Amino acid sequence: MSKFNTISLDAADTLFFIKDGLGDSYNKILKKYSNNYESRDISNSFKNFFNSRKGLHFSGLTGRNLVAAEKKWWYELVFDVFNELGMIDDFDSYFDDLYEFFAKDAWEIFEDTLPFLEEAKKRNFKLIVTSNFDSRIYNVCEHFGISKYIDCFTISSESGSSKPDPNFFYKSLSNANASLENTLHIGDNPKLDFLAAKEIGLACYLIDRDKDNSPSENRINSLNCIWDLIC
To answer: In this structure, are residues 143 and 159 in contact, taking their beta carbons and an 8 Å threshold?
Structure first.
């Protein structure tokens, strides 16, 4: 019998992913405005600005104030990208379309996500989401029919901190009334998920769906591999 009774999950690139990739997704919405950008350039610029930015987290904000702060954070990031690459005419309209696109239609669910969630509930695991995300996650999860499996969401924009800050993991555990010793975290990012979880003594598996990688002590290539490792 497993010592774990709770599974913490990252969201983006763990449960679902950007189906066309970031650069192509940005360009898909750009077609209405311009054809002068390469997807690779957009992706590279985005990555640089995203990685150098303060995390997507706010303190003491709820409701409309939180939604406004989230959108402003993304607006400034995307503005920086196109300020570097060449500004779009009517940037504000483009950004509004892009922001709405990433509220649902930009995403696709991994084929192993639903079977994993269903199996976890059959085995009576508590499932919690621990993700650097904004409040659009609720719409995305509802769209894919996975909200009903999640017992507790902890997202960075609502929490005052974000991964890899240990406080974010502790907050997620507290929100779910889960213990460190009996919780397993699964995520795709070596730094934000695996190393950050390990730093506080939280068991973690890194998910890497590259078919060339076989499951190992700390790495899985499908969510459903986890049952053979912990049960």
So the answer is: no
Fold type of domain 20-101:
DNA polymerase; domain 1 (1.10.150)
CATH topology of domain 6-17+108-230: Rossmann fold (3.40.50)
- Sign (positive or negative) of CA dihedral 168, 170, 176, 180: positive
What local confidence, expressed as pLDDT, does residue 215 receive?
57
pTM for this entry:
0.94
Place of tokens 């409309």: 64
pLDDT for res 34: 86
Assess contact for 28 and 16: CB atoms under 8 A: no
Amino acid at 5: N
Domain ranges of the chain: 6-17+108-230, 20-101
Q: Is 16 helix (H, G, I), strand (E, B) or coil?
A: strand
Residues 69, 74, 75, 81: is their CA dihedral positive or negative? positive
Residue reference for tokens 């991994």: 110
Give the pLDDT confidence of 22-33 residue by residue, as tens digits.
Answer: 999 999 999 999
Is the dihedral angle over the CA atoms 157, 168, 6, 188 positive or is it negative?
positive
If we measure between CA atoms, which residue out of 175, 190, 33 comes closest to residue 98? 33
Farthest CA pair distance, the chain: 60
pLDDT in tens, 136-171: 999 999 999 999 999 999 999 999 999 999 999 999
The CA distance from 67 to 33, in Å, is 26
Q: What is the pLDDT of residues 164-211, one digit of tens each?
A: 999 999 999 999 999 999 999 999 999 999 999 999 999 999 999 876
